[in-house]
Description:
This is H-type small acid-soluble spore protein. The protein has one helix at about 5-10, and strands at about 20, 25-30, 35-40, 50-55, 55-60. The protein is of the alpha+beta class.
Amino acid sequence: METKRIKQILSSSSDVEVQYNGTSVWIDKLHEDDKTVTVHLRGIPLEERTEVDISDLNEV
């Protein structure tokens, strides 16, 4: 996924499905390096957050 698209998703009020390793996740934050994001699993609000490379994300 591209940095520009992640910024659009974060600023959008629409529900955009994004997957990490085939699992649906919410993007919480784009990091300053523009190469990593913090995500957590959808449907589990207290789930641990994980930092991942944006190249590992796919928009469904």
